[in-house]
Design brief:
Elements (H helix, E strand, L loop, with lengths): L1 H20 L3 H5 L2 E10 L2 E4 H14 L6 E11 L2 E9 L4 E11 L5 E10 L2
Parallel strand pairs: 1-6
Antiparallel strand pairs: 1-2, 3-4, 4-5, 5-6
Length: 121
Amino acid sequence: MSQTLLDAVNAASQRWKDAFNAGDAAGCAAQYEADSVMHARPFGTFEGTEAIQGFWAQLIADGFSDIEYLNTKIEIIDDTSAVLSSDWKMNKAGGVIHKELWVLQEDGSAKLREDEFEAQG
């Protein structure tokens, strides 16, 4: 089960990065569960996919792109969930992903239930 979970998390994380780099805020939001919570320091807390999509849409509109994860770690929590942490950089900022809680869905894909990251410049 752990390899299936790892594969699902890696695929979903790649879908999120591809959507962001394509300027697709709806594609970013589609990687979150409907009632997910995103803590984006210093910007605030966003609850639910509509609010999360709005955050990514504004960031994309402000010219942010080219996200890249560095030093990524994935810790399996149980049979259906894993936490991804990573450094990140993009064209106009960088920071740390403290916790992306990915949860396996009934269809075998993974979606974000919690997202906690920090922009550091």
